[in-house]
Write a structure and sequence with these properties.
- By secondary structure, this protein is mostly beta strands.
- The protein has no helices and 6 strands.
- The chain has a 6-stranded antiparallel barrel.
- Strand 5 and strand 6 form a beta hairpin.
- It starts with 13 loop residues before the first strand and ends with a strand.
- 16% of the residues are buried.
């Protein structure tokens, strides 16, 4: 029995695998790896997700990318965000 996954994203994501920084607040940041990215969201790998707030800042220096993001799901070492 084949199971078909529904794609809920409104924009196609591209693989980027770029180093990034998550701004937790005005003074706290966390290194991350941005696995994929679109105009509307991203998949991000992090060391932990437990203490991340629902709203974060995301910076990807190699792409001159700096945006506010909202976490829409969490796993032990990854998050999905929307912009």
């Amino acid at each position: 029995l084949a199971v078909q996954m529904l794609e809920m994203r409104q924009a196609t994501r591209r693989k980027v695998n770029k180093a990034g920084r998550i701004a937790i607040d005005d003074t706290s940041q966390l290194d991350c790896l941005v696995r994929n990215l679109s105009d509307r969201g991203a998949l991000i790998s992090v060391s932990h997700t437990k203490y991340l707030p629902n709203e974060i800042g995301l910076t990807i220096p190699d792409l001159n990318f700096d945006r506010r993001a909202r976490i829409v799901w969490r796993r032990a070492h990854s998050i999905g965000v929307t912009f």
